[in-house]
Amino acid sequence: MGALATPFSGDGRHYLEQELDELVQQKKIWQFLRGGSLDGVWYWDLEEPDNEWMSPEFWALLGIDHRSRRHDPSEWQDLIHPDDLQTATENFVAHCDDPKHPYDQIVRYRHADGSTVWVRCRGLAIRSRDGTPIRMLGTHNDVTALKLAEERALHDRGVAAHANEELQAFAYSTSHDLKSPANTIRMLLQEMRHALNSGDFEDIEFLLGKAETTNEAMRTLVDKLLEYTRMIGTESQHEAVDLDALLAEVVQNLEADITASGAQVSIGPLGSVSGVAWQLGQMFQNLIANAIKFQSAGGSPSIQIAATQAPAGRVKVEVTDNGIGVAPEDRKRIFELFSKLHRPSAYQGSGVGLALCNRVARAHGSTIDVRASESGGTVFSLSLPRVQTKPKEQ
Fold first, then answer.
1. Does the predicted model carry a pTM greater than 0.70?
2. Strand order in 52-54's β-sheet?
3. What tens digit of pLDDT does each residue of 237-254 get?
4. Cα separation of 14 and 390, whole Å?
C-alpha cells in the first residue's frame, strides 16, 4: 500500500480517498466507521505524513469551506487547542506502539466565528504485515452540546452549593435574630396573665401596646427576610432597565416617607443598564429609605442619585446623602446580615436592607463601595453593566 507518485489521480480524487473507498469494503474497517455517528472521517498516510485526507464534514463543523484547505495536518493544527494537541499526540504515539492503547480523546477546535467546538476524535492504526503502522483512519464526532451541558451542570452545582452554604448561615442568623422578639412577646404574655389574675387592667393595656409594637417589628423583619431569600441562589435573566423610570417608581413608593421627612431627592439623568429590574428597584428603595432614616435630629434629608460612564462597558451609579454617615471601621460591617450600628431606640431597623443591597450588586457583577460625602453623610457607589447599543445603519 505504497504512496502514489502524485496525491491526485486522473479523476481528481486524492489517493487517500481512493484507498479509503477500498478499505471500507473490509468488514473490520466498516464496523469501526459504523460504530458512531460521524461528523467527519480522516485518513492519514503515516509513510508520507504531510498527506492527510480530511472529509468535508470536518471543515463544515468548523464553519470552513473545505475547498480552501489542503490535505495536510498543518491545516488544522493551528485550530486545535495546544493542550489538546499535546494529548492527541501522546495518545497517537502510544497507540502506534501498542494497538491496545486507544486513540480516543475529546479536543477543542476554534470555529470560524471564534467559538469553541468540542470534537471527539478517534482513530485506528492500519498496520503492515510486520505490524508497522502505515495508515491512520479516524472519525470525528461533534460533542459540543454535551460539553456545554456538562459545564452548565457543574456551574449549577457550584451555585447550588454556594446557595446551600448561604442558606445555612442565613437560617442560623435568622433563628438567632427572631428569638429576641419572640422571647419578648412570650414575656409580655406571661405578664398579662399575671395582671389578669391580679385584676390590674391598667397594666394589661400597657403590656398590650408593648406586644403590638414588638409584633410589628417582627412582621417587618419577616418581610425583609422574605425579600432577602428571593435573592439566594437565583440567577434572573438580565434585560435593559431604564433607571430613570425605575427610580421614578421607587420615589413614588416612598412618597409618604419623603413628604413626612421633607426630603429632597435629585435623580439623574441615569440612562439604561443591563440588569434585573425588581432587584435594582429593591436596592435603590433601601438606599433611599436609609438616607431618609439615618438623619440627625431636625435634619432635612438631601439625596442625589447620579450616573457616569465607567470602564469595561459599565455605568457607575452613586447615591449621596447628607445623613449621619458611617465610620470607616464600620463600612464593611454594615453589609452583614442583621448588622445594626445603632440602638433600636435611636434608629429602627432590621439589619437586612444593606445586606440585600450588596447581594443585588453582586448579582450584577459589582460590589457597593462606601465613603463619606462632602456634607459628612455617605456615598454608596456601584457599577452596573451598560446596555450595548447597535450602531445606526448609514
1. no
2. 52-54, 41-45, 133-142, 116-127, 103-110
3. 788 999 999 999 888 878
4. 47
Query: Which is more confident, 3 or 76?
Result: 76
Mean pLDDT for the chain? Answer: 80
C-alpha distances out from residue 46 to 69, 79, 105, 132, 140, Å: 20, 21, 20, 10, 19
Angle at 119 between CA 115 and CA 121, to 5 degrees: 150
Radius of gyration of the chain (CA): 35
Beta bridge partners of 239: 275
Instruction: Give Cα separations from 320 to 6, 288, 305, 369, 380 (angstroms).
Output: 78, 9, 6, 12, 6
Owner of C-alpha cell 470525528: 140
Q: Is the predicted pLDDT of residue 91 greater than 90, yes or no?
A: yes
Say how many residues make up the chain.
394
Q: Looking at the DSSP assignment, which residues form a beta bridge with residue 241?
A: 273
Going across the sheet that includes 369-372, the strands are 264-267, 302-310, 314-321, 378-385, 369-372
Tell me which of 330 and 262 has the higher pLDDT.
262
Helices of type H across 230-313: 243-253, 255-261, 277-293
Cell of 64: 470552513
Which residue shows C-alpha cell 477546535?
Answer: 109
State pLDDT tens for residues 161-186: 666 665 555 555 555 456 656 777 77
Closest CA to 65 of 54, 51, 73: 54
Q: Under DSSP, is residue 308 helix (H, G, I), strand (E, B) or coil?
A: strand
Asked if 266 contacts 286 with a C-beta cutoff of 8 angstroms, the reply is: no
Q: Are 215 and 145 in contact (CB under 8 A)?
A: no
